[in-house]
């Protein structure tokens, strides 16, 4: 259902994009038509014709949705319609006879006057999209078409039509952002399928193989390796369950279905509860885990989400620690937050690995010190959950010397 919705979203985005392109083409045609009307209005008429057509001309101009203007060869405004006054939020008395360049920032002013001079000089129409700062610093994006008109006496006039395209530009930016999110979601989908296809299938295959071995060996009453096989089956199944829980939690968070329950949570019991599940895996590698967390350290946060983050980081530290290494889990109280640190003396990471560590499409996990496989998905989940809890996560590491994973959780 998620991917079906994504496909429908993509079709809607494409439809909006095509509509935006058509609107832009129609806008250029409309600006050209309106410019021709303005030119005809400037043509010399008899006094009677001018008197008679003045009301007609004003009616046409004021019924145009776009702002229209006529300037002299000094860029001073001679004629504007109501839409122009509304665009600049000024009455006609403060517009006629002025350039309005003094009302905008210097960079906009220079651009306006430069284009005016160029069109008056060479007579080539100019269509331009540019920023406009109006009264009280309000920012707009406008599309302007400027044309030159020469009367019978050889006087040059600048005829222009302005359209406010601020909303259109914003819509295009939103469209680009939607396309970016769609690409990221598609990459996430591919990553998810990869994890399901490989990292979930392999542990179950291992469990089946171990069960077959155990079934055969149990027929030999003197066989003493049965507990070993049972331990491997148990740890493999448990790790697979953790990965499955991570996938389900992440899927819920992506669809907005995961709920956060804030409660007073003591850090120390949470860590020790996780260690009870992790200690058997650590022992198989001869790894010791030391906890330096005061009993009184508490946060108001989601206990379940916090456990997911700490569990993944401890599991990661065990995976990349060498047999006989030591892992340290610490909690440091700060003014308005608690920082939790998981330190190991394992293989560490180079700069390139560090840079791509928390990206779902860039994370390429290396095998553990005993060739343990992994998806790297746990760290992606940790980053997302920590940020949703209002904290930050980062890592300090040096190749061959271990890593320090640190994250903060707000006290409230």
From TrEMBL:
Q: What PANTHER family does the entry give?
A: PAC DOMAIN-CONTAINING PROTEIN, PHYTOCHROME-LIKE PROTEIN CPH1
Keywords attached to this Swiss-Prot or TrEMBL record, sorted alphabetically, are: Coiled coil, Kinase, Phosphoprotein, Transferase
Residue stretches in coiled coil: 10-48, 162-195
Q: Which Pfam families match?
A: HATPase_c, HisKA, PAS_4
User: Which named protein is this?
Assistant: histidine kinase
Residues crossing the lipid bilayer are: none
PAS domain location is 53-123
User: Which EC class heads this enzyme's classification?
Assistant: transferase
E.C. designation(s): 2.7.13.3
InterPro entries in UniProt: HATPase_C_sf, HATPase_dom, His_kinase_dom, HisK_dim/P_dom, HisK_dim/P_sf, PAS, PAS-assoc_C, PAS-like_dom_sf
Which residues are in the PAC domain? Answer: 126-177
Molecular-function GO terms, alphabetical: phosphorelay sensor kinase activity
Q: Which residues form the Histidine kinase domain?
A: 195-412
Quickly give the catalysed reaction: ATP + protein L-histidine = ADP + protein N-phospho-L-histidine
